[in-house]
Amino acid sequence: ISSAVSLENGLARTPPMGWLAWERFRCNTDCKNDPDNCISCSYILEINLFTFEAQESQFVQKLSKLGQKERNQYGELVPDRTRFPRGMKALSDYVSDSILKFGIYEDFGNYTCAGYPGVIGNLQQDAETFASWDVDYVKLDGCYAHPSEMDRGYPEFGFYLNRTGRGMICSCSWPVYQIYAGMAPNFTSIIQSCNMWRNFDDIQDSWVSVESIIDYYGNNQDVIVPNAGPGHWNDPDMLIIGNFGLSYEQSKTQMAIWAILAAPLLMSVDLRTIRPEYKAILQNKKIISVDQDPLGIQGRRIYKHKGIEIWSRPITPLYQNYFSYAIAFVNRRTDGTPSDVAVTLKELGLSSPTGYRVEDLYEDVDYGVLSPQTKIKVKVNPSGVVILRADVQVDFDRRVSYYTTQRTPYNPLNQVFRIRNNGF
Ligand SMILES: *[C@@H]1O[C@H](CO)[C@@H](O)[C@H](O)[C@H]1NC(C)=O
Ligand SMILES: *[C@@H]1O[C@H](CO)[C@@H](O)[C@H](O)[C@H]1NC(C)=O
Ligand SMILES: *[C@@H]1O[C@H](CO)[C@@H](O)[C@H](O)[C@H]1NC(C)=O
Asked: Which pTM was predicted?
């Protein structure tokens, strides 16, 4: 339950947003043969400029990884001077001079997944090193560790992070490794040590991978959803929008579902070359605003039948006991033609008698104020999405009846969204 005791470092009150190298660039450290793509200081500086431009201060986190190659004679992590000639603190200073914050990857284990030093045996020292580098965000992976030791080890590292006095977001892989080992993660404890955590597989550059994640979060929502809230989030992994594997429709679906899931929005894409239509998806302010809703309630899959899914997330504003909602209609079918979905607001659980102002978050269409009895009809493209926002109205019955009896909703998309009024 989100009101349970949780990590109170004051951070990640809404899901963190930013850019990570991993999904797109992997462990490329070959600066000799691939200078444009290897993970190095100059590469991060270059991407940094684009992150800044791409997200117009919406995205604030940023992760570098593969910087700490080894330990010195005192056991301290030391940067790879070939790729980070001025070290991690200088990089952190540079990144933090912009609107971004600085994140780093490590591993609760003997090694990182790529074989670099892990934190086991150096928990306190590494926490202090990160604080001295002005790190804002620590991702702690779980390779080369015993999953049964994580219940003790992750909180211990969290304790040392806290003791540094520097607020650092703690991103954990603790539950996913335990689930892989057949254990049931103790989320009560995880919430107390982590600002976010991975539940499921690493995302790969394909729609199959995105679908498997969507299914995992839908099928396990009764266990997963209650753990999310301000300061502690489920992390379905990076946004792969703008890479090679997703179509335009599928990219829109990933962005919409991640917002419904109150997911961290962590891009992993080459911002130097991303096409404008994909950049526009990542920059969709209305969808980002759903993701960043201050209530921090994770949404759910409320309908699934014959390849059609409806996902719903309660958001602000509230009026009396009624929430506003973001609603995503997803078409998982592949039969070539858009599918119609017709449903009343009431059937979606939107029952405030004062009505809801409804807008489409991709098509920039405002449908005015609709009553709960209004039947909405959307056309959803194969592997695509229609995402709506329905803001509950303050008590203003005259306006409801005005819109629902006298106004034909403006529809530039000719029959993409038809509204039929019942009940008035
Ligand atoms: C990590 O190293 C220690 C000390 O060598 C060893 O006891 C432990 O089993 C190792 N853990 C894993 C997961 O390999
Ligand atoms: C450390 O933990 C205490 C107790 O939960 C909290 O009040 C404080 O803000 C934390 N400090 C940092 C730097 O995370
Ligand atoms: C889960 O963690 C909480 C908080 O640390 C602890 O009180 C509880 O006993 C743990 N539950 C189990 C089943 O281990």
From this structure: 0.88
* Catalytic residue of the set 80, 107, 141, 237: 141
* Distance from the alpha carbon of residue 67 to the mean position of ligand 2, in angstroms: 27
Report phi then psi at 248, rounded to 5. -60, -45
- Atom number of ligand 2 nearest to Cα 10: 9
3-state secondary structure 37-103: CCCCHHHHHHHHHHHHHHHCCCCCEEEECCCEEEECCCCCEEECCCCCCCHHHHHHHHHHHCCCCCE
Task: Measure 221 CA to ligand 2 centroid, in angstroms.
Answer: 30
Full pLDDT tens readout for the chain, 424 residues: 444 577 888 899 999 998 887 788 777 777 788 877 777 666 666 666 555 444 433 334 444 455 566 788 888 888 887 778 778 888 788 777 777 888 899 999 999 998 989 999 999 999 999 999 999 999 999 999 999 999 999 999 999 999 999 999 999 999 999 999 999 999 999 999 999 999 999 999 999 999 999 999 999 999 999 999 999 999 999 999 999 999 999 999 999 999 999 999 999 999 889 999 999 999 999 999 999 999 999 999 999 999 999 999 999 999 988 999 999 999 999 989 999 999 999 999 999 999 999 999 999 789 999 999 999 999 999 999 999 999 999 875 544 444 443 333 333 332 222 333 332 2
